[in-house]
Specification:
Length: 203
């Protein structure tokens, strides 16, 4: 089972030109093995990765982009089999790619910035409800909250005082920013997603 993330930067033309460097940096620092990514049509991107790692990386991309003023990203996650291998991510095909495109196509209709499509309809219903609730917080992240989420994901299992040193901030300001971002609850969702994917793929 593979995951494919299809995304684009919202209102990219209104952002300072260096937004592309932030996107490239986020895609270059994704977590997991055998990750392939490509930027196309100027402000769109696609990532192929393991199903288990899809949600943490989608959250990470969002945090990176939201460190920029007035920037945000739309993300469709597809889970499934991959049938066509290709040198370029955008030329590959299969269930994961189709599901990712379908998830991305629902974003504007459902007025959300992240959605998932898997081969399991009941799982889709549950996960999309959880993601929609998480987006209440994630869509509202300010630049500092987004930056602290980015640091916290990059340094998982690291104590807040170390994250504070890396970020050049006090521990209390890091703690407050992560609390505002509802980081603990969002990581609970990520853990639930990962556990669910592991079980479904085994079966």
């Amino acid at each position: 089972m593979k995951a494919v993330i299809t995304g684009d930067i919202i209102n990219s033309r209104a952002l300072p030109p260096d937004w592309i460097n932030t996107l490239k940096s986020s895609l270059g620092n994704l977590f997991g093995k055998q990750i392939k990514w490509e930027i196309f049509r100027g402000d769109s991107f696609q990532v192929e990765l393991s199903a288990q790692d899809a949600l943490i990386n989608a959250i990470y991309i969002k945090a990176c982009i939201k460190t920029l003023k007035k920037a945000d990203v739309r993300i469709g996650i597809g889970i499934g089999k991959k049938s066509v291998n290709a040198a370029k991510v955008t030329e590959a095909n299969g269930e994961a790619y189709i599901n990712s495109g379908n998830a991305f196509d629902t974003l504007k209709t459902n007025k959300v910035n992240m959605a998932i499509t898997t081969p399991w309809p009941t799982v889709n219903e549950e996960l999309n409800l959880f993601i929609k609730l998480a987006l209440i917080s994630m869509d509202s992240w300010g630049q500092i909250s987004a930056e602290m989420v980015k640091y916290a994901i990059e340094n998982q299992n690291t104590k807040q005082d170390k994250i504070a040193k890396l970020a050049g901030r006090s521990q209390s300001s890091v703690s407050e920013a992560l609390k505002r971002a509802h980081f603990t609850e969002i990581m609970e969702l990520e853990h639930r997603y990962r556990t669910q994917m592991n079980q479904l793929i085994k079966n």
